[in-house]
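hey m, so remember when u said the tokens were messed up on ur end? i reran from scratch. heres the input so u can diff it against urs
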Amino acid sequence: MRALCLLALFFAAAAQAQDWDMWDRYAERFVQQDGRTIDYSAADKTTSEGQAYTLFFALVANDRARFDRILGWTRDNLAQGDLSARLPAWSWGKRVDGSWGVIDPNAASDADMWLAYALLEAGQLWGEARYRALGALLVARIGKEEVVDLPGLGPMLIPGPQGFHPDAQVWRLNPSYMPIQILRRFAEEEPEGPWEKIAENSLRLIKSSSPHRLAPDWAAYRVGKGFVIDPVNGDVGGYDAIRVYLWAGMLADGDRLRHPLLSSLSAMRGELKKNLVPPAIIHAASGAAEGSGPIGYTASLLPYLKALGEERLLRLQQERMKTVDSIRYYDRVLSMFGEGWLEGRFRFDISGHCVPKWKR
């Protein structure tokens, strides 16, 4: 009897460990034992974005031990030991003098959004008040340091506290930095905050900056003119913009912004019908597309195609996923989101809450 019990415990533990193989492979490849996420394709750099994404994946995997290590490394190395007092620095790695540490102390609002979100949801899903309290503090700090009131528009999330306001009339913006799911969750946490208005304004940003229904990486807002082409990166869409389709595809069915958002991005479906492979870059102003995008782009478009009901295109993109196994960090991140969602590892409800498989 004892032997049978031990055998049952062994198989139960093995099943739990193998519940999300993609997470196990990702963590083994990119996450150190101390909780640091490394992008080996970028001079072994660590970013606040990478830490925030990995924190979210650990929550989805119900991997609380790694969650705590990831959070601890982020706090100690990107926030000078106190995430309740400051936003994390966005870039950490090898400095010019050969030492390792913060390279750029500026924060990145997309990372800050995902970090706060993961903490809020961990607090609820694991019943841990300290996570939720820290998440709420970060939400308030994001609102204070990374939200501006744009003349003629209203509140908008800017990419970081410093460097995105080149002159008195212009603010640079990134459409992929503000998933509506997260904004919905922040609005529930902070009902008097700017989050619902930012959700509306993010849709306006995407619609206005995507005249051919293809999103750019960056855009800008000019007083008196509204949304215009970004003065630094132009109208190119690629590495950043692919996440706009990803977030839109994962938005809850009942969200009132889901249909207009997907409609504003509908031309990517046409690109896939023509070439079967996502373009490497698009030009939002003309609608022109160039090259073949990496496998991570394909992964990002899986929820988008599912949301549009494009089952044939979805199957073809899933087949492509089977033929390419990239070890690049960003491809793996996008695959964790796209394939993980399609497999039902997690979803977002209409209030923006994460509903992981292990909680259902």
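this time it looks ok to me. The first strand starts at residue 46 and ends at 47. if urs says something different then somethings off w ur setup not the seq
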